[in-house]
Amino acid sequence: MLFKQKGILFVLSGPSGVGKGTVRKALFKKDTSLKYSTSMTTRPMRPGEKEGVDYFYRSKEAFEEMIKNNQLLEHAEYVGNYYGTPREYVEKQLDEGNDVFLEIEVQGALQVKENFPEGVFIFLSPPSLEELKNRIISRGTETETLVMNRLNAAKEEIDMMDAYDYVVVNDQVDHAVENVQAIVKSEHCKRERVATEYKKILEVSQS
């Protein structure tokens, strides 16, 4: 029986404007073995979208039933529609030995930690609040009031850093990606992960 390690759920999170999407996309270009966690939603499918690729599309009633039965790692309601992470999809990928990456806001990450504490939680931090402010302003989509609201929210979210396993400062995208890759490698070499699976092989070989 060959040694095959179970996949790991990595949760990348941080304040709005810190560059979570940019880092995640750059990471996936470098490591094609990672699986992106496909979310579920109650909003209608848009032209060009595909079931199971862009989202898993469900009715509001079906989604609420999943909430009731604890079948979502996290969920939120936005503009009248539900969005969430289906537990079954994530666990299936992990059982097949695939690492799953979830890019999510801080509140959602804390929900995931409560429902799936064995995940690895990575906080993506800005080099400074001033730099975060510049990044938000450079989008050109926020009013001055919204910029200040986002910065105040970011301060509160940075205070939640203690709930995470790792902190990566997003000073440069390539540097941040290298640090995330190092975390992935180190997690796969952790004694408690390797020992659990290896002991199963030894038990089978001795029976």
Task: Note the main attributes of this structure.
alpha/beta; four-stranded mixed beta sheet; five-stranded parallel beta sheet; Guanylate Kinase phosphate binding domain; 207 residues; 9 strands; Rossmann fold; 19% strand; 2 domains
Give an account of the 3D structure.
This protein is an alpha/beta fold. The chain folds into two domains: 1-34 and 99-207, Rossmann fold, CATH 3.40.50; 38-97, Guanylate Kinase phosphate binding domain. Helices cover 47% and strands 19% of the residues. It is built from eight helices and nine strands. It has helices at 20-30, 60-68, 87-95, 106-115, 129-139, 144-158, 173-188, 191-206; strands at residues 9-13, 35-36, 40-41, 56-57, 72-78, 81-86, 100-104, 120-125, 166-169. Strands 2-7-1-8-9 form a five-stranded parallel beta sheet, sandwiched between helices. Strands 4-3-6-5 form a four-stranded mixed beta sheet. The longest helix is centred in the C-terminal third of the chain and has 16 residues, at 173-188. The two termini are 12 Å apart.
